[in-house]
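User: Please predict the structure of the protein below. I'd like the answer in structure-token form so I can feed it into my own downstream comparison script.

Assistant: Understood. Taking the following sequence of 186 residues as input:
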Amino acid sequence: MNFIEMSKLLLSQAEELFGERVNDWSYDHQVTIQDGPPHLIYNSSGEIYISLSTSAQDLEYKIVSQLSHEIAHVISPAKNPVVDYLQILVINEGVSEFFSLLALSTWFEIELNEVYESKKEPYPEYFDALNLVIDLHKGNRDIIKNLRKRKKYLNELTYEDIRLENGIVDDAKIHRLLSSFSFQQK
């Protein structure tokens, strides 16, 4: 299966879980491999491309891991073209890691717990974000889809949006979900 086919399949699965993608950006399933970490590329023509890390080249597990993570960002990009700035919140990365966890488990028929354990290293910030999103799902399986009905961009969510959808997650976790995401490159 090539990148375009993989991207289409993963996007369909992500939309089923999290709702339809934001259509403010055009996405034609363009995937490249470049030096550096995987990320979305936003161009001035309103298009999004996915860039995977060279570490994924020819390693299907890493390709699925990185591509599924970035596909979740395609659903709700961290950059709003109207506001034209990039703001990444913990919830953005948590949802992307959550989708990557599910995609890897399904794609390779691996127990969820085994994939979950593999996510602990090497970046604990992503693992913490994943755990916060898992906590959200404990109270409501469709919470991300419901939240995206309120605000199509996850990084525009407010404390009240999350509180109204989920009574399980405490105030401190909601504030962490809505805080800016940062990680230490190793």
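That's the full token string. The helical segments are 3-18, 60-75, 90-108, 112-118, 124-139, 143-150, 159-165, 171-177.
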